[in-house]
Design brief:
alpha+beta; six-stranded mixed β-sheet; globular
Length: 106
Amino acid sequence: MSDTLYDADGIRIYTYHSFAVNDKFSENLDFFLDYKGNIYAGTVFSLNCVIAYMEDTVIDSPFNNYFWAPYTIVIKEFSSEYLIASILEIISDKKVLLEDVVCKQI
């Protein structure tokens, strides 16, 4: 069952995951965007999560020198409010091609 985070003005943002997490390593989730008749998918990470992966010396993290993930948005705080605000800002920015940020589903 999906959880709709935002649904207005022809834009729907939803996820099948929860923002409730136990630690900073878990501050990421997959989301979906319905916009102009298309569905897009992406992943959101909190800045804390990215920093935690890069600084961690306990787990075998591949992200010691860099962090890379396809179709990813990094948000300042891990919350639905920050995700929604970020997506709305990306949509309104005419210099950004949406398909460069999130993956258009076929």
